[in-house]
């Protein structure tokens, strides 16, 4: 069994389907999607349907800030600010796609999104990973149980999440990428946080100690591991897997990351997809 994670598809159903067809995860594999299925790209409803089908086979899908903007509008459409906030963040394509659905299907899809969690954790080999859409606000001080490798995984994750607000988990940016989390100790052991939300091409001027540029040799986004230093035993404590789908063709790619060996599977966003 392998564990795969991906994030920030932003309506690019074509790239999503192609990378899954190429990698072809098995029914025994674990799959986690870190949010932002929707907005900007041409087929956000198709992405939601695809991700929902994954959950029917045991996958986990998290809610991102774009899903939150969508739900805010539908929960209170009389407030014009809710639509403006959604629209300026690319919500028009999603609104159009949802409007084309029958009322019961739209309600069913929105109810499903509303019930999505904001975090997940996975143990892969000797490493514990915390998965959120945007990251976390680094806890200060770090609870002792977090770095206790003998403690239960549930207790360690609960201690990290105890002081996190929902906004932290889906909106945080500079406060997360710009400083160590404190969740990995000098011995290199601890919890690595895997997140999306911030397209990696924007990390170059934001992250402390990125392992490489967020723009690859092909000029498109690529995964970045952040924060390896003496304080973390040389281990990057933050991984950004948002390779820039939000920017569309010529800017980003969709990444499907296999946590077991760190292998990165990319599918570029093609014109019109």
Short summary:
This protein has 273 residues and is of the alpha/beta class. The protein has 9 helices and 10 strands.
Descriptive notes:
The chain is α/β, with parallel strands linked by helices. 30% of the residues lie in helices and 16% in strands. It has a single domain (3-268), classed as Purple Acid Phosphatase, chain A, domain 2. The protein contains 9 helices and 10 strands. A hairpin with a 2-residue loop joins strand 4 (119-124) and strand 5. Helix 3 packs antiparallel against helix 4 (80-87). It is globular and about 55 Å long. The two termini are 31 Å apart.
Mean pLDDT: 97
Would you tell me which CATH topology applies? Purple Acid Phosphatase, chain A, domain 2
User: Whole-number radius of gyration?
Assistant: 18 Å
Query: Got a strand count?
Result: 10
Name the features.
Purple Acid Phosphatase, chain A, domain 2, 273 residues, single chain, alpha/beta, 30% helix, 10 strands, 5-stranded mixed beta sheet
SSE inventory with pairings:
Blueprint: E1 3-6, H1 13-23, E2 30-33, H2 44-55, E3 60-61, H3 65-75, H4 80-87, H5 92-99, H6 103-114, E4 119-124, E5 127-132, H7 153-161, H8 166-171, H9 174-177, E6 191-195, E7 224-226, E8 238-240, E9 253-258, E10 263-268
Parallel strand pairs: 1-2, 2-3, 5-6, 6-8
Antiparallel strand pairs: 1-9, 4-5, 7-8, 9-10
Helix pairs in contact: 3-4
């Amino acid at each position: 069994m392998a564990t795969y994670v991906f994030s920030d598809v932003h309506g690019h159903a074509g790239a999503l389907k192609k990378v899954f067809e190429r990698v072809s995860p098995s029914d025994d594999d674990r799959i986690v999607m870190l949010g932002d299925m929707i907005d900007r790209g041409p087929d956000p409803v198709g992405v939601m349907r695809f991700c929902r089908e994954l959950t029917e086979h045991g996958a986990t899908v998290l809610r991102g800030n774009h899903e939150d903007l969508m739900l805010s509008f539908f929960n209170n459409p009389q407030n014009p600010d809710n639509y403006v906030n959604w629209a300026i963040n690319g919500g028009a394509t999603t609104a159009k796609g949802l409007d084309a659905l029958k009322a019961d299907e739209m309600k069913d899809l929105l109810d499903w999104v509303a019930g999505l969690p904001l975090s997940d954790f996975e143990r892969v080999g000797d490493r514990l990973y915390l998965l959120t859409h945007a990251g976390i606000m680094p806890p200060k001080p770090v609870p002792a149980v977090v770095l206790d490798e003998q403690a239960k995984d549930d207790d360690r994750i609960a201690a990290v999440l105890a002081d996190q607000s929902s906004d932290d988990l889906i909106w945080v940016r500079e406060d997360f990428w710009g400083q160590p989390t404190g969740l990995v100790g000098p011995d290199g052991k601890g919890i690595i946080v895997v997140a999306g939300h911030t397209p990696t091409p924007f990390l170059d001027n934001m992250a402390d100690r990125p392992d490489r540029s967020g723009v690859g040799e092909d000029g498109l986004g690529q995964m970045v591991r952040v924060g390896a230093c003496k304080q973390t035993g040389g281990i990057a404590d933050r991984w950004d897997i948002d390779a820039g789908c939000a920017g569309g063709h010529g800017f980003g790619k969709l990444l499907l990351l296999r946590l077991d060996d760190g292998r990165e599977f990319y599918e570029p966003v093609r014109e019109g997809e």
